[in-house]
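Researcher: Go.
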Amino acid sequence: MGSKNKLKRFNENATFSNVVQPTREEVVNEQLALKGKWRTDFFKNNNPIVLELGCGKGEYSVGLAERYPDKNFIGVDIKGARFWRGAKTAVENGMQNVGFLRTQIELIHHCFAENEVDEIWITFPDPQIKYKRTKHRMTNSEFLQRYKQILKPEGLMHLKTDSEFMHGYTLGLLHGEGHEVIYANHNIYKNEGAPNVVTTIQTFYEKQYLEINKPITYIQFKIK
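Model: Structure:
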């Protein structure tokens, strides 16, 4: 994407009422006014809040929001030029139950209050396969503890990935740390028992993976 196009998208994001773009300083210094007030001040309802972390183009957030009008969805990514697509679609379709937050995932516990979030989706994250990159892996112990801070006690986590490595790494860590694995499968499109929501909403890249018969994996779990 050219820098001109990127700038155009950033400028358009600034006009969208469904996009929140705090500075890193605001987030770290606990100055994000919406923290603890996403339901009342942003969505203006009392429905459950579901996050999609590393939402990319935002197709999954928008797809979930269309499917579950009685829940609130927030796509989170640092790349605003990417989620511009999802934000624009939501605006054009008059969707009131989906928004986008531009921030780093490692700051997520600064953006939401304790027990404010009901569910978290992680869709097709970078598996960070090299050993020295483990600290960036979105399901490592440190990240899980950040998610736990903002999730309700029985809050659900979902990991959907095309990476067999990420699937295996996460499953091993969850079992090793004593978290509750509710469902796990390393090829959800070949398994009739997969939760319906996992197979009916697909991202742009997921469709490409499926065309070349690349297995898509899924884990549903609770952090203990």
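Model: The chain has one domain: 3-222.
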